[in-house]
Amino acid sequence: MDTFDIAIVGGGMVGLSLALALKPSLEAGKSLVVIDPAPQPTEQAPHSPSFDDRATALADYSCQALEHLGVWPALSAHASAIDWIEVSDRGHLGYQVLDSQRLFNRPFGAVVSNTNLGQALWQQARTLPEVEWCFGEPVDRIDSHSEHQRLTLNRSRTLAARQVFLCDGGRSPLLQKLGIPLQQQPYQAMARIATVRTEQPHRGRAYERFTHQGPIALLPFGNYCALVWTYPERLHKRINAMTPAQQLDWLNQHFGQRLGRLTEISPTQAYPLSLVQAVAPIRHRLMALGNSAATLHPVAGQGFNLAMRSLMRSARYCNQSFAEGKEPGEFKGLQALAQSIAADQRQTAFFSDQLVRHFSSTNPLVAAARTLALGSLDRHPMAQKAFALASMGLLQNAPLSSAPLEVLPT
Protein backbone atom coordinates (compact mmCIF):
# COMPACT_ATOMS: atom_id res chain seq x y z
CA MET A 1 0.00 0.00 0.00
CA ASP A 2 1.54 3.31 -1.11
CA THR A 3 1.59 6.01 1.55
CA PHE A 4 1.53 9.74 0.80
CA ASP A 5 1.91 12.80 2.99
CA ILE A 6 -1.21 14.42 1.48
CA ALA A 7 -4.07 13.19 -0.70
CA ILE A 8 -6.43 15.52 -2.57
CA VAL A 9 -9.70 13.92 -3.62
CA GLY A 10 -10.93 15.97 -6.58
CA GLY A 11 -8.92 17.48 -9.41
CA GLY A 12 -11.16 20.42 -10.28
CA MET A 13 -10.49 24.11 -9.70
CA VAL A 14 -10.15 23.76 -5.92
CA GLY A 15 -8.11 20.57 -5.97
CA LEU A 16 -5.60 21.79 -8.55
CA SER A 17 -5.28 25.19 -6.84
CA LEU A 18 -4.59 23.46 -3.52
CA ALA A 19 -1.96 21.24 -5.14
CA LEU A 20 -0.19 24.32 -6.51
CA ALA A 21 -0.36 26.07 -3.13
CA LEU A 22 1.38 23.05 -1.56
CA LYS A 23 4.41 23.50 -3.82
CA PRO A 24 6.77 24.55 -0.95
CA SER A 25 6.09 21.24 0.80
CA LEU A 26 6.52 19.24 -2.41
CA GLU A 27 9.84 20.94 -3.13
CA ALA A 28 10.91 19.92 0.38
CA GLY A 29 10.25 16.28 -0.51
CA LYS A 30 6.72 15.73 0.74
CA SER A 31 4.52 13.51 -1.43
CA LEU A 32 1.06 14.22 -2.86
CA VAL A 33 -1.54 12.16 -4.69
CA VAL A 34 -4.44 13.79 -6.55
CA ILE A 35 -7.38 11.49 -7.27
CA ASP A 36 -10.18 12.31 -9.71
CA PRO A 37 -12.78 10.14 -11.48
CA ALA A 38 -12.48 12.16 -14.70
CA PRO A 39 -10.20 10.98 -17.55
CA GLN A 40 -6.55 11.91 -17.85
CA PRO A 41 -6.29 15.51 -19.12
CA THR A 42 -4.58 16.42 -22.34
CA GLU A 43 -2.54 19.46 -23.30
CA GLN A 44 -5.43 20.70 -25.42
CA ALA A 45 -8.34 20.27 -23.02
CA PRO A 46 -8.92 20.21 -19.26
CA HIS A 47 -10.38 17.01 -17.88
CA SER A 48 -12.88 17.88 -15.18
CA PRO A 49 -16.60 18.20 -16.08
CA SER A 50 -16.57 21.42 -14.05
CA PHE A 51 -14.18 23.01 -16.57
CA ASP A 52 -16.93 23.99 -19.00
CA ASP A 53 -17.90 27.23 -20.73
CA ARG A 54 -19.50 28.74 -17.63
CA ALA A 55 -18.01 31.95 -16.25
CA THR A 56 -16.39 32.41 -12.85
CA ALA A 57 -16.01 35.83 -11.23
CA LEU A 58 -12.66 36.13 -9.48
CA ALA A 59 -12.20 38.65 -6.69
CA ASP A 60 -8.96 40.60 -6.74
CA TYR A 61 -7.69 38.36 -3.92
CA SER A 62 -8.28 35.27 -6.08
CA CYS A 63 -6.50 36.93 -9.02
CA GLN A 64 -3.52 37.72 -6.79
CA ALA A 65 -3.54 34.19 -5.40
CA LEU A 66 -3.53 32.72 -8.92
CA GLU A 67 -0.65 35.02 -9.79
CA HIS A 68 1.19 33.81 -6.69
CA LEU A 69 0.63 30.22 -7.85
CA GLY A 70 2.03 30.97 -11.31
CA VAL A 71 -1.30 30.58 -13.11
CA TRP A 72 -2.22 34.16 -13.91
CA PRO A 73 0.28 34.79 -16.76
CA ALA A 74 -1.42 32.08 -18.86
CA LEU A 75 -4.91 33.10 -17.75
CA SER A 76 -4.77 36.89 -17.96
CA ALA A 77 -5.15 36.98 -21.76
CA HIS A 78 -8.54 35.26 -21.38
CA ALA A 79 -9.77 37.34 -18.43
CA SER A 80 -12.24 40.24 -18.59
CA ALA A 81 -11.47 42.85 -15.95
CA ILE A 82 -14.23 44.23 -13.71
CA ASP A 83 -13.54 47.97 -13.60
CA TRP A 84 -16.93 49.37 -12.59
CA ILE A 85 -19.88 48.05 -10.58
CA GLU A 86 -23.49 49.16 -10.37
CA VAL A 87 -25.89 47.80 -7.73
CA SER A 88 -29.55 48.84 -8.12
CA ASP A 89 -33.04 47.97 -6.88
CA ARG A 90 -35.70 47.87 -9.62
CA GLY A 91 -38.64 50.17 -8.91
CA HIS A 92 -36.84 51.99 -6.09
CA LEU A 93 -34.33 54.81 -5.79
CA GLY A 94 -31.57 52.75 -4.19
CA TYR A 95 -28.51 52.86 -6.43
CA GLN A 96 -24.76 52.51 -5.96
CA VAL A 97 -21.84 52.79 -8.38
CA LEU A 98 -18.17 52.00 -7.76
CA ASP A 99 -15.25 52.88 -10.03
CA SER A 100 -12.21 50.68 -9.41
CA GLN A 101 -9.72 53.16 -10.82
CA ARG A 102 -10.94 55.89 -8.50
CA LEU A 103 -10.91 53.61 -5.45
CA PHE A 104 -8.01 51.22 -5.99
CA ASN A 105 -6.28 52.10 -9.25
CA ARG A 106 -6.72 48.44 -10.24
CA PRO A 107 -9.70 46.25 -11.26
CA PHE A 108 -12.05 44.82 -8.65
CA GLY A 109 -11.50 41.39 -10.14
CA ALA A 110 -11.96 39.51 -13.40
CA VAL A 111 -14.27 37.04 -15.13
CA VAL A 112 -12.87 33.93 -16.81
CA SER A 113 -14.36 30.82 -18.37
CA ASN A 114 -13.99 27.62 -16.39
CA THR A 115 -12.41 26.07 -19.50
CA ASN A 116 -9.57 28.58 -19.57
CA LEU A 117 -9.15 28.48 -15.80
CA GLY A 118 -8.97 24.68 -15.82
CA GLN A 119 -6.44 24.61 -18.62
CA ALA A 120 -4.21 27.20 -16.93
CA LEU A 121 -4.37 25.35 -13.60
CA TRP A 122 -3.56 21.99 -15.18
CA GLN A 123 -0.65 23.27 -17.28
CA GLN A 124 0.91 24.70 -14.12
CA ALA A 125 0.05 21.77 -11.86
CA ARG A 126 1.55 19.14 -14.19
CA THR A 127 5.01 20.64 -13.52
CA LEU A 128 4.82 20.01 -9.76
CA PRO A 129 7.33 17.56 -8.27
CA GLU A 130 6.40 14.62 -6.03
CA VAL A 131 2.82 14.31 -7.33
CA GLU A 132 1.08 11.13 -8.44
CA TRP A 133 -1.99 11.80 -10.60
CA CYS A 134 -4.73 9.17 -10.36
CA PHE A 135 -7.30 9.99 -13.04
CA GLY A 136 -10.27 7.80 -13.87
CA GLU A 137 -10.18 6.57 -10.27
CA PRO A 138 -13.21 7.31 -8.06
CA VAL A 139 -12.67 6.88 -4.32
CA ASP A 140 -15.11 4.26 -3.03
CA ARG A 141 -14.42 4.63 0.66
CA ILE A 142 -12.16 6.25 3.23
CA ASP A 143 -11.27 4.50 6.50
CA SER A 144 -9.66 6.25 9.43
CA HIS A 145 -6.56 4.93 11.17
CA SER A 146 -4.44 6.58 13.82
CA GLU A 147 -1.48 7.29 11.52
CA HIS A 148 -3.30 7.78 8.22
CA GLN A 149 -6.52 7.69 6.25
CA ARG A 150 -6.92 4.67 3.98
CA LEU A 151 -8.48 5.34 0.58
CA THR A 152 -9.96 2.50 -1.45
CA LEU A 153 -10.21 3.35 -5.12
CA ASN A 154 -12.78 2.03 -7.55
CA ARG A 155 -10.31 -0.37 -9.17
CA SER A 156 -9.45 -1.97 -5.82
CA ARG A 157 -6.23 -0.06 -5.34
CA THR A 158 -5.64 1.08 -1.77
CA LEU A 159 -3.65 4.17 -0.76
CA ALA A 160 -2.80 5.74 2.57
CA ALA A 161 -2.37 9.45 3.30
CA ARG A 162 -1.39 11.26 6.46
CA GLN A 163 -3.75 14.10 5.52
CA VAL A 164 -6.71 14.03 3.13
CA PHE A 165 -8.49 17.05 1.62
CA LEU A 166 -11.92 16.43 0.09
CA CYS A 167 -12.32 18.78 -2.88
CA ASP A 168 -14.79 16.71 -4.89
CA GLY A 169 -17.63 19.23 -5.13
CA GLY A 170 -21.03 19.96 -3.68
CA ARG A 171 -22.41 16.50 -4.44
CA SER A 172 -19.60 14.63 -2.76
CA PRO A 173 -20.72 11.03 -2.11
CA LEU A 174 -17.93 10.64 0.43
CA LEU A 175 -19.38 13.07 2.98
CA GLN A 176 -22.32 10.79 3.66
CA LYS A 177 -20.11 7.71 3.77
CA LEU A 178 -17.91 9.46 6.35
CA GLY A 179 -20.94 10.45 8.42
CA ILE A 180 -20.36 14.19 7.95
CA PRO A 181 -23.84 15.77 8.23
CA LEU A 182 -25.00 18.61 6.02
CA GLN A 183 -27.23 21.54 6.91
CA GLN A 184 -29.45 22.35 3.94
CA GLN A 185 -31.60 25.42 3.55
CA PRO A 186 -33.52 25.48 0.25
CA TYR A 187 -34.25 28.95 -1.13
CA GLN A 188 -37.24 27.83 -3.24
CA ALA A 189 -35.46 29.58 -6.09
CA MET A 190 -33.65 28.72 -9.29
CA ALA A 191 -30.49 30.07 -10.90
CA ARG A 192 -30.25 30.22 -14.67
CA ILE A 193 -26.89 30.96 -16.27
CA ALA A 194 -25.99 31.88 -19.83
CA THR A 195 -24.03 34.35 -21.92
CA VAL A 196 -25.78 37.27 -23.57
CA ARG A 197 -24.95 39.84 -26.23
CA THR A 198 -25.83 43.47 -25.60
CA GLU A 199 -26.28 46.40 -27.96
CA GLN A 200 -23.49 48.34 -26.26
CA PRO A 201 -20.07 46.94 -25.23
CA HIS A 202 -19.73 46.27 -21.51
CA ARG A 203 -16.41 48.18 -21.17
CA GLY A 204 -15.56 46.23 -18.03
CA ARG A 205 -18.83 47.10 -16.27
CA ALA A 206 -20.70 44.67 -14.00
CA TYR A 207 -24.29 44.99 -12.83
CA GLU A 208 -26.32 43.55 -9.97
CA ARG A 209 -30.02 44.35 -10.45
CA PHE A 210 -32.42 43.32 -7.66
CA THR A 211 -36.00 42.73 -8.79
CA HIS A 212 -39.16 41.40 -7.12
CA GLN A 213 -38.56 38.12 -8.96
CA GLY A 214 -34.94 37.82 -7.82
CA PRO A 215 -31.53 39.32 -8.64
CA ILE A 216 -30.12 39.52 -12.17
CA ALA A 217 -26.37 39.94 -12.63
CA LEU A 218 -24.41 40.78 -15.78
CA LEU A 219 -20.63 40.41 -15.77
CA PRO A 220 -18.10 41.35 -18.48
CA PHE A 221 -17.12 38.19 -20.36
CA GLY A 222 -15.08 38.69 -23.51
CA ASN A 223 -17.29 40.22 -26.20
CA TYR A 224 -20.37 39.11 -24.28
CA CYS A 225 -21.75 39.31 -20.75
CA ALA A 226 -22.14 36.43 -18.33
CA LEU A 227 -25.69 36.24 -17.01
CA VAL A 228 -26.76 34.94 -13.59
CA TRP A 229 -30.56 35.07 -13.46
CA THR A 230 -32.39 33.96 -10.33
CA TYR A 231 -36.13 33.66 -9.84
CA PRO A 232 -38.68 31.85 -7.60
CA GLU A 233 -39.04 28.11 -8.09
CA ARG A 234 -42.75 28.58 -8.81
CA LEU A 235 -41.84 30.35 -12.07
CA HIS A 236 -39.46 27.66 -13.29
CA LYS A 237 -41.85 25.78 -15.58
CA ARG A 238 -43.00 29.01 -17.16
CA ILE A 239 -39.49 30.33 -17.78
CA ASN A 240 -38.19 26.93 -18.83
CA ALA A 241 -40.86 26.79 -21.54
CA MET A 242 -39.88 30.19 -22.96
CA THR A 243 -38.19 30.53 -26.32
CA PRO A 244 -34.89 32.46 -26.38
CA ALA A 245 -36.78 35.50 -27.72
CA GLN A 246 -39.23 35.33 -24.82
CA GLN A 247 -36.39 35.00 -22.33
CA LEU A 248 -34.78 38.11 -23.79
CA ASP A 249 -38.08 40.00 -23.52
CA TRP A 250 -38.34 39.05 -19.84
CA LEU A 251 -34.74 40.08 -19.11
CA ASN A 252 -35.02 43.38 -20.98
CA GLN A 253 -38.18 44.21 -19.05
CA HIS A 254 -36.71 43.40 -15.64
CA PHE A 255 -33.07 44.38 -16.12
CA GLY A 256 -33.49 47.60 -18.08
CA GLN A 257 -31.36 49.27 -20.76
CA ARG A 258 -28.03 49.73 -19.03
CA LEU A 259 -26.11 48.30 -21.98
CA GLY A 260 -28.89 48.83 -24.46
CA ARG A 261 -31.11 45.85 -25.14
CA LEU A 262 -30.02 42.28 -24.65
CA THR A 263 -30.09 40.94 -28.20
CA GLU A 264 -28.87 37.32 -28.01
CA ILE A 265 -28.83 34.61 -25.35
CA SER A 266 -27.02 31.28 -25.34
CA PRO A 267 -28.69 28.04 -24.26
CA THR A 268 -29.30 28.37 -20.53
CA GLN A 269 -28.61 26.02 -17.64
CA ALA A 270 -30.82 26.09 -14.54
CA TYR A 271 -30.44 24.53 -11.11
CA PRO A 272 -32.19 24.82 -7.73
CA LEU A 273 -30.63 27.01 -5.06
CA SER A 274 -29.82 25.95 -1.52
CA LEU A 275 -27.43 26.95 1.20
CA VAL A 276 -25.59 23.72 2.04
CA GLN A 277 -22.92 23.58 4.75
CA ALA A 278 -21.04 20.68 6.28
CA VAL A 279 -21.73 20.76 10.02
CA ALA A 280 -18.27 19.47 10.96
CA PRO A 281 -16.02 19.41 7.86
CA ILE A 282 -13.06 17.81 9.64
CA ARG A 283 -12.12 14.39 10.90
CA HIS A 284 -8.80 13.09 12.17
CA ARG A 285 -6.43 13.67 9.22
CA LEU A 286 -9.28 14.73 6.91
CA MET A 287 -10.89 18.03 5.89
CA ALA A 288 -13.51 19.10 3.33
CA LEU A 289 -12.85 22.22 1.25
CA GLY A 290 -14.67 24.17 -1.47
CA ASN A 291 -18.20 23.13 -2.40
CA SER A 292 -17.69 19.93 -0.42
CA ALA A 293 -17.74 22.12 2.70
CA ALA A 294 -20.21 24.83 1.64
CA THR A 295 -22.41 25.64 -1.37
CA LEU A 296 -23.76 29.20 -1.34
CA HIS A 297 -26.39 31.22 -3.16
CA PRO A 298 -24.77 32.63 -6.35
CA VAL A 299 -26.22 36.11 -5.82
CA ALA A 300 -22.83 37.41 -4.69
CA GLY A 301 -20.67 35.02 -6.72
CA GLN A 302 -18.84 34.00 -3.57
CA GLY A 303 -18.36 30.26 -4.10
CA PHE A 304 -14.93 29.97 -5.70
CA ASN A 305 -13.58 33.07 -3.95
CA LEU A 306 -14.50 31.59 -0.56
CA ALA A 307 -12.92 28.31 -1.64
CA MET A 308 -9.76 30.08 -2.74
CA ARG A 309 -9.38 31.80 0.62
CA SER A 310 -9.99 28.49 2.39
CA LEU A 311 -7.52 26.47 0.35
CA MET A 312 -4.81 29.11 0.66
CA ARG A 313 -5.25 29.07 4.44
CA SER A 314 -5.07 25.28 4.38
CA ALA A 315 -1.93 25.22 2.24
CA ARG A 316 -0.25 27.76 4.46
CA TYR A 317 -1.08 25.63 7.50
CA CYS A 318 0.32 22.48 5.88
CA ASN A 319 3.45 24.17 4.55
CA GLN A 320 4.24 25.69 7.94
CA SER A 321 3.51 22.44 9.78
CA PHE A 322 5.85 20.44 7.53
CA ALA A 323 8.54 23.14 7.76
CA GLU A 324 8.37 22.93 11.56
CA GLY A 325 8.46 19.14 11.59
CA LYS A 326 4.85 18.80 12.69
CA GLU A 327 2.01 16.60 11.42
CA PRO A 328 -0.62 18.77 9.70
CA GLY A 329 -3.19 15.99 10.06
CA GLU A 330 -3.41 16.19 13.84
CA PHE A 331 -6.97 16.96 14.91
CA LYS A 332 -6.10 19.92 17.15
CA GLY A 333 -4.32 21.76 14.35
CA LEU A 334 -7.02 20.95 11.83
CA GLN A 335 -9.65 22.16 14.27
CA ALA A 336 -7.99 25.58 14.59
CA LEU A 337 -7.70 25.80 10.80
CA ALA A 338 -11.36 24.81 10.38
CA GLN A 339 -12.45 27.46 12.86
CA SER A 340 -10.70 30.23 10.93
CA ILE A 341 -12.27 29.01 7.68
CA ALA A 342 -15.69 28.62 9.32
CA ALA A 343 -15.68 32.25 10.49
CA ASP A 344 -15.14 33.43 6.91
CA GLN A 345 -17.74 30.95 5.65
CA ARG A 346 -20.40 32.03 8.16
CA GLN A 347 -19.85 35.69 7.38
CA THR A 348 -19.99 35.07 3.63
CA ALA A 349 -23.05 32.82 3.84
CA PHE A 350 -24.84 35.29 6.12
CA PHE A 351 -24.24 38.19 3.74
CA SER A 352 -25.43 36.21 0.70
CA ASP A 353 -28.48 34.96 2.60
CA GLN A 354 -29.48 38.41 3.87
CA LEU A 355 -28.94 39.96 0.44
CA VAL A 356 -31.37 37.49 -1.09
CA ARG A 357 -34.00 37.84 1.63
CA HIS A 358 -34.02 41.63 1.88
CA PHE A 359 -33.76 42.46 -1.81
CA SER A 360 -36.32 39.88 -2.90
CA SER A 361 -38.93 40.94 -0.37
CA THR A 362 -42.06 42.72 -1.61
CA ASN A 363 -42.89 44.00 1.88
CA PRO A 364 -43.25 47.82 1.55
CA LEU A 365 -41.43 48.43 4.85
CA VAL A 366 -38.51 46.23 3.81
CA ALA A 367 -38.40 47.95 0.39
CA ALA A 368 -38.34 51.38 2.03
CA ALA A 369 -35.59 50.31 4.42
CA ARG A 370 -33.33 48.96 1.66
CA THR A 371 -33.86 52.11 -0.44
CA LEU A 372 -32.84 54.22 2.55
CA ALA A 373 -29.85 51.99 3.23
CA LEU A 374 -28.60 52.08 -0.37
CA GLY A 375 -29.06 55.83 -0.56
CA SER A 376 -27.26 56.47 2.73
CA LEU A 377 -24.16 54.55 1.68
CA ASP A 378 -22.92 57.62 -0.21
CA ARG A 379 -22.28 59.25 3.17
CA HIS A 380 -20.22 56.29 4.40
CA PRO A 381 -17.46 55.56 1.87
CA MET A 382 -16.07 52.49 3.63
CA ALA A 383 -19.51 50.93 4.02
CA GLN A 384 -20.32 51.82 0.41
CA LYS A 385 -17.16 50.11 -0.80
CA ALA A 386 -17.73 47.00 1.33
CA PHE A 387 -21.37 46.59 0.29
CA ALA A 388 -20.83 47.00 -3.44
CA LEU A 389 -17.82 44.67 -3.49
CA ALA A 390 -19.54 42.07 -1.32
CA SER A 391 -22.71 42.16 -3.41
CA MET A 392 -20.63 41.09 -6.42
CA GLY A 393 -18.58 38.51 -4.51
CA LEU A 394 -15.51 40.71 -4.78
CA LEU A 395 -14.89 41.61 -1.15
CA GLN A 396 -11.38 40.70 -0.11
CA ASN A 397 -11.07 38.34 2.84
CA ALA A 398 -12.97 39.83 5.78
CA PRO A 399 -14.93 43.07 5.33
CA LEU A 400 -12.73 46.15 5.05
CA SER A 401 -9.58 44.03 5.26
CA SER A 402 -6.52 45.89 4.03
CA ALA A 403 -4.29 42.80 3.83
CA PRO A 404 -5.79 40.41 1.28
CA LEU A 405 -2.54 38.47 0.91
CA GLU A 406 -2.14 37.59 4.58
CA VAL A 407 -3.33 34.04 4.02
CA LEU A 408 -1.07 33.21 1.08
CA PRO A 409 1.37 30.39 1.90
CA THR A 410 4.86 31.38 2.92
Key descriptive features of the protein:
single chain, 410 residues, alpha/beta, FAD/NAD(P)-binding domain, 13 helices, 22 strands, 34% helix
Characterize the structure shown.
- By secondary structure, the chain is an alpha/beta fold.
- It has one domain (2-183, 274-391): FAD/NAD(P)-binding domain, CATH 3.50.50.
- Helix content is 34%, strand content 30%.
- The chain contains 13 helices and 22 strands.
- Strands 6, 7, 14, 15, 16, 17, 18, 19 and 22 form a 9-stranded mixed beta sheet that branches.
- The longest helix has 29 residues, at 331-359.
- It is globular.
- Residues 373-378 and 396-410 have low confidence and may be disordered.
Helix content bin: 25-40%
* Coarse structural class: alpha/beta
Integer-rounded radius of gyration? 21 Å
CATH architecture level-2 label: 3-Layer(bba) Sandwich
Layout of helices and strands, plus pairs?
Layout: E1 2-4, E2 6-9, H1 13-21, H2 23-27, E3 32-36, E4 55-59, H3 60-68, H4 72-75, E5 80-82, E6 84-89, E7 95-99, H5 100-103, E8 109-113, H6 114-125, E9 131-135, E10 139-144, E11 149-153, E12 158-161, E13 164-166, H7 173-177, E14 182-198, E15 205-211, E16 214-221, E17 224-232, H8 236-240, H9 244-255, E18 262-265, E19 269-278, E20 282-283, E21 286-288, E22 294-295, H10 303-323, H11 331-359, H12 364-376, H13 381-391
Parallel strand pairs: 1-12, 2-3, 2-13, 3-9, 6-15, 13-21
Antiparallel strand pairs: 4-8, 5-8, 6-7, 10-11, 11-12, 14-17, 14-18, 14-19, 15-16, 16-17, 19-22, 20-21
